[in-house]
Write a structure and sequence with these properties.
Blueprint lengths: L11 E7 L3 H15 L3 E3 L7 E6 L4 H15 L7 E5 H5 L1 H5 L5 E3 L6 H6 L5 E3 L11 E7 L10 H4 L4 E2 L2 H13 L4 E6 L7 H4 L10 H9 L6 E4 L2 E2 L5 H9 L6 E5 L5 H7 L5 H14 L4 E8 L6 H14 L3 E6 L17 H25 L4 E9 L6 E6 L4 E5 L8 E10 L2 E6 L1 H4 L15 E3 L18
Parallel strand pairs: 1-2, 1-3, 3-4, 4-5, 7-9, 9-10, 11-12, 12-13, 13-14, 17-19
Antiparallel strand pairs: 6-20, 7-8, 15-16, 15-18, 16-17, 18-19
Helix pairs in contact: 9-10, 13-14
Length: 472
């Protein structure tokens, strides 16, 4: 029975919540499209028949948010309960089961079709076709990490390294572009290692690495751009740089994780680079691109971090001149080597270092934003700017926020904007009329189109469940 023919009493509702990274957001979207394809209506507010919470385990704070959210949802007594998946589930499923009888924990993602079959889900998409609530789409290209950094829980909760086949990714991007998405963000747990498993044992000319994937995606027709979500310093190599340079679709924004500017701390973290090579690779990016945005992650307060170590991090950040810094206070994760290391940094020192680095981040961010004044940037228009009537905000190719006067029909479009000034943490400018007026409208769809992999169970036989795509 189609959704249109269902009565109000038969129509099932669901709400989905995502905590954590872009990979989690992609996986939530995949589940959402499976639910929609099987007659569920997604609601944004109020009670629903089924709640799904995709959790994160990177920090204590992320796990605390998940617990509080699940407890709140349980008060609604949903018909099909609260389905919980994600990294927190992999790390400590019993802690989540203990929250209530209506909590359904998906400790093994491969069992998700079996569990959702009990809620009426009999068909699964072959990938995503939309990205709910976003003007840009995240595309997961691989899962798992091989690095085993001493502070990180992810290799324990996502131990299986798998890359999606190139053809599968290409078809997914084609669907998203056809449905009007003008920015595709390639993401993964370790994006730079994409294709290692696909290429193992093959001659080099048959490899399928990240730079090969970029070349293939850049060949696709349509108006869209490609953004890389995150890279490790050692992956800023000639093959990747050349692929980015020869394909103008690829955004000149590179998020390269530093974590610490002290070689001693990097060694304790089990990071596979030294400060000198990190700085050199960032310089390679600057030489290859015109004023690229280079952003980073830094952990403050790693066990044993001295004032000299922190000063080294501060100095490296200034020397590289990051466009912005994501700052993470060290959060010991049970089961990781760093959680058992001596010389844990006291909270008050950790907080002080975080504030000092945040001051530097504001200074560097302002400096980079000022370097873009007067330039014309391609901006993806994402939403109306509530504080300025008639204005819209979006993301530029270099990853910065831009506010400018616009039209509602530009939402989801790539608009050339001349930058006039810096405003708080954003830029302000104006659209170039000759280009902007010619923008086509984004296609409208009554409901997401999904390509379903259908099973045909016989009433007398056990249900044959679909197999999830590689890399799910």
């Amino acid at each position: 029975m189609s959704v249109a023919l269902q009565t109000a009493a038969e129509l099932k509702t669901c709400r989905l919540f995502t905590l954590g990274c872009k990979v989690n957001q992609y996986e939530t979207q995949y589940v959402l499209e499976a639910l929609q394809g099987n007659g569920y209506q997604v609601t944004e507010a109020g009670a629903a028949d089924l709640y799904i919470v995709n959790t994160c385990a990177v920090t204590h704070e992320a796990e605390g948010k998940a617990r509080r959210l699940i407890r709140r949802l349980l008060r609604d007594r949903p018909r099909y309960g609260v389905l919980v998946l994600g990294c927190f589930v992999s790390r400590d499923p019993e802690a989540l089961r203990g929250l209530g009888a209506q909590v359904r924990v998906v400790a093994d993602k491969e069992r998700l079709p079996e569990i959702l079959a009990e809620c009426g889900v009999r068909a699964w998409p072959r990938g995503i076709s939309h990205f709910h609530g976003h003007q840009r789409a995240f595309v997961k290209v691989q899962d798992g990490c091989l690095l085993n950094c001493t502070f990180c829980i992810i290799p324990y909760v996502r131990p299986r390294f798998v890359s999606r086949p190139v053809a599968e990714i290409v078809h997914e991007v084609e669907r998203l572009v056809a449905n009007g998405y003008r920015e595709i963000v390639l993401t993964g747990i370790h994006l730079g290692h994409y294709g290692i498993d696909l290429s193992r044992g093959k001659p080099k000319e048959q490899w399928s690495r990240l730079w090969h994937l970029l070349d293939r995606l850049a060949e696709l027709p349509g108006e869209f751009r490609i953004r890389l979500s995150s890279l490790e310093a050692a992956e800023v190599r000639a093959d990747l740089l050349e692929a980015c340079r020869r394909n103008p679709r690829i955004c000149p924004h590179f998020h390269v994780c530093l974590q610490s500017g002290s070689n001693r701390i990097l060694q304790a973290m089990r990071r596979r680079y030294r400060v000198e090579s990190f700085v050199k690779n960032c310089e390679m990016l600057r030489q290859a691109f015109d004023n690229p945005a280079i952003s980073t992650d830094v952990i403050v307060g790693f066990p044993g971090e001295t004032e000299e170590d922190f000063a080294a991090t501060f100095e490296v950040a200034e020397r590289v001149g990051f466009a912005w810094i994501h700052i993470f206070p060290f959060s010991p994760r049970q089961g990781t080597p760093a959680a058992l290391m001596p010389d844990q940094v006291p909270t008050h020192i950790l907080q002080r270092r975080k504030e000092q680095l945040a001051d530097l981040d504001r200074k560097l961010r302002r400096r980079y934003l000022e370097s873009l004044v007067g330039k014309k940037l391609e901006v993806l228009v994402e939403k109306a700017e509530e504080r300025l009537p008639g204005h819209f905000t979006g993301t530029a190719c270099r990853g910065v926020r831009v506010v400018f006067p616009g039209k509602s029909e530009w939402l989801g479009r790539l608009v050339p904007v001349r930058i006039a000034a810096v405003w708080e943490k954003s830029l302000v400018g104006y659209a170039e009329p000759s280009d902007a007026e010619e923008l086509p409208k984004r296609p409208e769809f009554s409901r997401p189109h999904t390509q379903l992999q259908r099973s045909n169970p016989s009433p007398a036989k056990k249900l044959s469940l679909p197999v999830l795509p590689a890399g799910w």
